[in-house]
Amino acid sequence: YKNPYYAPGHSTMVHLFEWKWDDIADECERFLGPRGFGGIQISPPNENVIIWQYNRPWWERYQPISYKLVTRSGDEQQFASMVRRCNDAGVRIYVDAVINHMTGEPRDNIGTGGSTADFRQWSYPAVPYTAQDFNWPHCVIDGWDYGCCPDKVRNCELVGLKDLNQRSEYVRFMIVGFMNKLIDLGVAGFRIDAAKHMWPEDLQVIYDRLHNLNTDHGFPSGARPYIYQEVIDFGNEAISRDEYTGLAAVTEFKFGLELSRAFAGGNQLRWLNTWGPIWGLLAHEDALTFIDNHDNQRGHGGGGVILTYKQAKQYKGATAFMLAHPYGEPQIMSSFDFTDSEAGPPMDSNGNIISPAINSDNTCGNGWVCEHRWRQIYSMVAFRNVAAGTNVNDWWDNGSNQIAFCRGGQAFIAFNNDNWDLNQNLQTCLPAGAYCDVISGSKSGNSCTGKSVTVGNDGRAQIYVGSHEVDMMLAIHRGDESRL
Ligand SMILES: O=C(/C=C/c1ccc(O)c(O)c1)N[C@@H](Cc1ccc(O)cc1)C(=O)NCCCOc1c(-c2ccc(O)c(O)c2)oc2cc(O)cc(O)c2c1=O
Ligand SMILES: [Ca+2]
After folding, report:
1. Out of 172, 174, 356, 462, which could bridge 368 as a Cys pair, Cβ 3.0 to 4.6 Å?
2. What CA–CA distances, in Å, run from 355 to 22, 72, 269, 309, 395?
């Protein structure tokens, strides 16, 4: 359950938060496939309750009302078409699976597929679930339960959301049926939402009943789904993410916290020369890593200050480090612009999601940020692909916030987060020749729109990153995007 099964030459997952299925399929063909992205995390594809009371908040999609594949992102036919088109473009699909709970008790009683429920009777006829399928006696998790009482965190209701009993054979049957339908449609795996709120032994039973990935979508026979479990754990709760790493991968929330601290200036970059498990991070094969996610970019989920698209220079620096370093399985957040942390995606007066506009310079409009389309970010996906299979070597730092390292003999990157210029003759580990810096520009024909770097026969080059430049890093590699 720890192998994403990316297509050869592809890496890196992007969370296309709240995107519609037709737009995702287009993005796979016109951008993500050609740029070597490995996969996409999509928003929950099953029917959720409609919450107009808070003007369609983003979190309404985390309140299931049925397992019908009908949401504001599209219907079952559009979902199937997206998976087919993306797999054909070499881009995998991972589903955000909300299986811990159903809805709370919202004011309105109608789902995105027209289903209704009787929340107060724990009755969801569109599944169907009835009261016997939920944990009993009904209780709500309160703050101190996280510190004292694992049983309550699993068996009571998370913020009042009706808590399913995954020990029930019927509930397991319905959840497994929902997930196997998605696997048979060609998805490559799942994010398990709120995994901390479910018993590991119940999850193990569910995972083991999942089908192998569909070989008609290019997966090897016998391939198991890639599963990464959302366990928000900063080490101060009774439940530890270590209870879940034996089952499948786990979201590594400390990763984004530590890199945000380093790139926001709270910790010197030189300390990153030991980046990896000795920082208290999960083992490499267990870790789904990210700077920010849909929840903590809005300040929820505990921890500390997290860099987002709103701190562009530092965010691009931290993201470049995430993609340049071999540790973990990285995920890039792709957001819509927001000031209100509850706000849902751009929508028209009927509540239909507005598609991202693609501008002439390949950035997004209509309120979509599309971090994955920022040159400094997509260029680092190509960097990561070229560097696959190599380690970090030839680390250099200036004792504070100027660092540089190679990836084998394939790629080189330098960062400058000090208030003075980086201007050093450094070992790039690359063959002699000319390279385009893929951060300040790109290769165009046989010239560079940004900086160019000349590497000598000894692999060394003069590396310059001014402290006032738009970006804090310079990256070159042996791939076509950089090598002249
Ligand atoms: O802010 C939110 C939603 C947050 C959220 C949603 C999906 C996630 O995957 C997530 O990690 C957080 N929801 C708002 C509004 C809200 C929604 C429903 C409700 O009954 C009450 C309020 C909110 O203020 N929520 C309370 C703080 C965030 O508490 C939530 C957590 C959560 C936060 C920190 C933890 O350490 C933890 O173990 C769980 O997970 C969810 C998972 C869900 O599937 C649906 C949820 O409503 C929530 C969820 O409310
Ligand atoms: Ca639960």
Report:
1. 356
2. 9, 11, 38, 20, 43
